[in-house]
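Re: that chain you flagged

S.,

Sorry for the slow reply, it's been a week of failed gels. I finally had a moment to sit down with the sequence you sent. For the record, here it is as I used it:
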Amino acid sequence: MADSAEFFEKYLPAKINPELQASVKNSIQFDLTGDPEGTITWTLDLSTAPGSVVKGAIASPGCVITVAKSDWEKMLDNPSLAMQLFMMGKLKASNVALALQLQKILA
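Prediction finished late last night. Pasting the C-alpha cells below so you have them in one place:
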C-alpha cells in the first residue's frame, strides 16, 4: 500500500513543473480522515509559479478533496479507483472540475 506522507513529501513535489502549474493555476487541499491522530491535511498550491506542496490548509483552496486515508492510499496504488470512490461517496470534492485535474498529477 502506498504511503500518503511519502506521496505528499516526495512524489507530488517532483511532479510539479511549469506546464502543470500553468494548466491548473489553482490549489487543491486534501483532507485525509480516519487517521488515529485525526484528519491530516495537505495542500497542493499551483495558483502561482513555481507551485508547492505544504502540510496543512491554506486560506481559500480552489478545491477540497475529502477521503479516508486508507481509501486514498488504495487509490494511489490504483488510480482507477478514484471514480468508484467518488460514486460511492467515499471521495468528496468541493469543485469536481478542478478535482478532475488530479488525473494530470496521478498519471
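What I noticed first: The first helix runs from residue 4 to 15.

Talk soon,
D.
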